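Following up on my earlier thread - several people asked me to post the actual chain instead of describing it. Fair enough. Here it is, all 426 residues.
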Amino acid sequence: RQSPAWLASLHGRIRHHQQPPGASGAPSAGWVFQRSTPSRSQTQTRDLPSSGRPVTLVRVKRVWRCPHALCPKSTWTETSEVIAPRACLTQRARAEICRRVGEDGASVAATARDFGVGWATAMAGVRQHGAPRVDDPARLEGVDAVGLDETAFQAASATRSTSFVTGIVDLTRHRVGPARLLDVIDDRSASALVSWVDQRDPAWRAAITTAALDPYRGYASALRAALPHAVRVLDAFHVTRLGFAAVDDVRRRIQREQTGHRGRRDDPLYRIRRLLRRAHTHHSQRSWQRLLAGLDAGDTTDEQLAHTWIAAQDLRLIFSCPDRARAAQALYRWLAYCADADIPELTRLARTLDSGRAELLAYFDTGGISNGPTEAVNLLIKKIKRVRHGFRNFDNYRLRLLLYCGVDWNTVRATPIRGRLPRLAA
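Reply from S.P.:
Thanks for posting it. Predicted structure:
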């Protein structure tokens, strides 16, 4: 007698044959009638791997007929809750594909190869089980601080310019765990950010008290319009980077004026380009000598590069002030120094920071909040882009990023059987 279920190993693969027992009733009336034995069909469905080998579930489905003439559904085929009609993956296999792509950051193509299905089939499982996690309103609850930063979505080509997306990151300090990505907006304009904030409910908007951002004024304008009560804070890292970027701009301009070409290996200013970006507290005696020798050999007679380097170092030290009052005094002295220096690059930088003076000093009112967690999420975003080798569809890009950076999976991990330094190593 044939068993309802058995296993067969073929070419390293496990095939699980399953035949539903018992009779079935008409979906509309409940009358029972089993058709003759030849009216059966077999379907092959991928299931979760077992012992490192792929599993194919061969299901024998029976076709039933209702003998009553008034039955609106005269024939029907048996169905199962774990296998959707005409599906080549079980529901738990689709959920596992979503977990691998979302939690583990695996590519859809590699996961599809592991399950022996196509990319579209695997991606359909990611959408089916991932979209409810991403669209869950509870995912955005308990947020009182956000960080904003842009990342490149598609690189420039012959037919398009570089496109950017805006990432919104949860910076709530009392939250346990790493920073998480709240959402991704397909633009970095102020109107796109205002539109996203307006789509949130009023209670969520009222709970946001702090927002960290880079010096890009589009974000400041959007937050001023959409979240006027939130304190806007300029990120200290981005401000400091602007100072050293001005040093690079002055160095390149002087090199072109003196040599007529870009920096080369033997040019004195090009040889100290990395020393110019180093904090003065991190210089050794040897590096100080190299820096001063390079400035003596390549700087202008009015020492424009040296003045710009001093301004960048002083700008960095503003964030070391103990309170807002002293930071305001240091910022005023720095702006006056830039005005007296009369260097185009410094003047442009001073105007930029003077327009965001309130956001810069708010750093001291919020306990030093920064966009550091946002930059950490940006690294994860770039990791997903490298795994996928780039994206063309923004909806798929957003879903992949939020599943990897914005969803708490709560997967039960294996308990370690040894400590970090076992006494006996096998």
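Residues 83 and 90 are 5 Å apart (CA to CA). That should answer part of your original question.
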